[in-house]
Amino acid sequence: MSVGLTQALDQLAEAARAVGVDPQEARREGVVLAATVAEAASPLYEAARSWASGTGLADPADLDASVSAFVDAAAAGRRWRATPTDALARLRRSGADATGYAAALVEVVEACASLGGLTPRVTDNIITVAATQRGGAGSVAPGGFTPSTPTEPSTPTEPAALRADSVAAMLDALRGLESLPSLREPNPSLLESHPSLRGSLPSPGDPGASPSGDGAGGSIPDPTLPGAPAEPALPAQPEPEPEKTVDELLAELDALIGLAAVKQVVRQQVAMLRVEAKRAAAGMRNPAITRHLVFVGNPGTGKTTVARMVGGIYKALGLLDQGHLVEVDRSELVAGFLGQTAVKTAEVCARAVGGVLFIDEAYSLTGDQYGAEAVNTLVKEMEDHRADLVVIVAGYPDPMVGFITQNPGLASRFRTTVEFADYTDDEVVSILHKLAADADYDVTLPAEQTFTQVLAATPRTMAFGNGRFARNLLEEAIGRQALRIQDVEDPTTAQLRDLDASDFGADDGEPQGPPDSSTPQDASDEQGET
Questions:
Q1: Which DSSP string do the residues of 63-101 spell out, in sequence order?
Q2: Mean per-residue pLDDT for 91-117?
Q3: Mean pLDDT value across the chain
Q4: What is the mean pLDDT of residues 7-20?
Q5: What is the pTM assigned to this prediction?
Q6: Within 10 Å of residue 481's Cβ, how many Cβ atoms?
Q7: Cβ atoms within 10 Å of 168's Cβ, excluding its own
Q8: 280-291 burial string, b = 16+ CB within 10 Å, else e?
Q9: Cα–Cα distances in Å, from 517 out to 14, 243, 466, 469, 521?
Q10: pLDDT by residue (tens digit) across 340-373?
């Protein structure tokens, strides 16, 4: 089964030699490309064993070694699902004829159909990655890759034009191009060589197949003919919000209640990064300053809010392309089988590239082999994307110490710890007023006094909700107010806005106890976050 891959790699080396590319570099690209195409196989170990046999990089009889080498190679080549390989891109920029090398890469991709564990996702990878590499031999159009033609020679292109915001965005762009029939009609030789693909690929007569097909749903009316339906007008796109400057984002940080120590650390980070840029512009060397952060503190102290702001600040400084926040916990990183956890973690990291990956309760990744596998993959992804990925890990202070020390790679990358102290009673009251005002409610003085009594009677254990405590009681008060005024025929503005003492449980005979502080909250909340 692995002979196809072995032969394809040999042919790739020969094609590389013909165009002046190092055959060993070409073989490495093919090995990595094959792994990243086949990593969605199920069970994964079948593909890993076949891949190991075809590449010679591991003993197929050694399952652990095969899976480990396979997963590492797949992670290294994921970007080539949406962009040409490095050698192919270099050939195109030089103006050389890259058609032969691209065709050899496609042969490697199509050989993945002979590996074990073929799934629809692997099939889709084969089709899309083959189209990407084939298209990479030509010039780049604004919507994606277009293949080269004899009358239109390749032209050098800036490397930035080769990047897509994400794999999904590139797939959408590719599928929208009429000039890429390979996305709609699979290579006939691929079907002949690998009958197992039949039934998982569209045929020209199938619904939703090529526009040139005759089957139902396969033809597209010519808009120039009489009676052709008019194309629906596209909805107007809203104007994008202007990007905020670093100073504007720092002002928003300063506007948060409390968090004095946190604000100081963030401002220090910004100052170091600004000075680092000035030193680089002056031709000076800079020490390696890690941008990854450890947030320690109890729930509800604003860790998620600040993490989102850090992403925006790093983007405004030009350190990140997008600055978005991807928030996950153990369940979104760990799978049920060894080998699959690495794939799952790598996919999460891929979503966060260009922004911030925020891992809440990161210490939950300690103590078992699945968590260790996730951590090892995370360290590798941080190294592979050290220029365009920031990772922030968060949790309780003491467990986070154990998490960082479990892996030398973590200790060397997380050098800055930001401590989020519990809010004082006055700060929690201020958060209550801010949350209420943001929702067009007013907390009356008697209501504030009742809330203060409840707060004072609540033990400050590790489970104390901090800002979340204020949000939970506010939501309960809003519910009581609604019951109180629902029968008022024509309520005044004050009646609709005011929350009084009874809304916070003053009429119950004793202060209302706090709700469960572990209740999940909307991640878009501001100072009610973890």
A1: HHHHHHHHHHHHHHTGGGGTS--HHHHHHHHHT---HHH
A2: 88
A3: 77
A4: 91
A5: 0.53
A6: 21
A7: 11
A8: eeeeeeeeeeeb
A9: 64, 35, 9, 6, 10
A10: 888 889 889 988 999 999 998 889 988 888 888 8
Strand partners, 357: 326, 391
The answer to whether residue 182 scores a pLDDT higher than 60 is: no
At 483 the three-state DSSP class reads helix
Q: What would the two tokens of residue 165 be?
A: 């915001």
Whether the CA torsion 19, 21, 22, 26 is positive or negative: it is negative
Among residues 306, 317, 318, the alpha carbon closest in space to that of 253 is found at 306
DSSP-assigned letter for residue 243? P
Provide the CB-side half-sphere exposure for 60 (13 A, CA).
15
Query: What is the 3-state composition of the chain as percent helix, strand, coil, each rounded to the nearest 5?
Result: 55, 5, 40
DSSP 148: -
Please give the Cα distance from 64 to 350 (Å, whole number).
24
Distance CA 52, CA 112 (A): 12
> pLDDT tens digit string along 300-326?
888 888 999 999 998 888 888 888 999
Token pair, residue 500, equals 């009084």
Instruction: Specify whether the CB–CB gap between 77 and 33 falls below 8 A.
Output: yes
* Residue entry with tokens 């526009």: 211
DSSP state of 292: -
Instruction: Tell me the two tokens of residue 103.
Output: 């065709």
Q: What is the C-alpha to C-alpha distance for residues 195 and 184, in angstroms, rounded to an integer?
A: 18
The residue-averaged pLDDT of 450-471 equals 85
The residue behind tokens 């277009």 is 146
Angstrom CA distances, 382 to 76, 313, 412, stand at 12, 19, 11
Average pLDDT over residues 44-57: 86
Q: Are 462 and 420 in contact (CB under 8 A)?
A: no
What tens digit of pLDDT does each residue of 56-90 get?
888 888 877 888 888 888 878 888 888 889 899 88
Cβ neighbours of 140 (radius 10 Å): 19
SS3 at position 295: strand
The residue to which tokens 């202007």 are assigned: 242
Q: How many CA atoms lie within 13 A of 282 on its CB side?
A: 9
Contact status, residue 207 vs residue 218, Cβ threshold 8 Å: yes
- What are the tens digits of pLDDT across the range 198-235? 444 444 444 444 443 444 444 444 444 455 455 555 55
- 476 in Cβ contact with 310 (< 8 Å): no
* Alpha carbon separation from 361 to 304, 344, 365, 490, 530 (Å, rounded): 12, 18, 8, 48, 10
Instruction: Count how many residues are written for the chain.
Output: 530
Report helix, strand or coil for 120.
Answer: helix
Paired strand residues for 294: 393, 417
3 state SS of 186: coil
Question: d(Cα 444, Cα 496) in Å, to the nearest integer?
Answer: 13
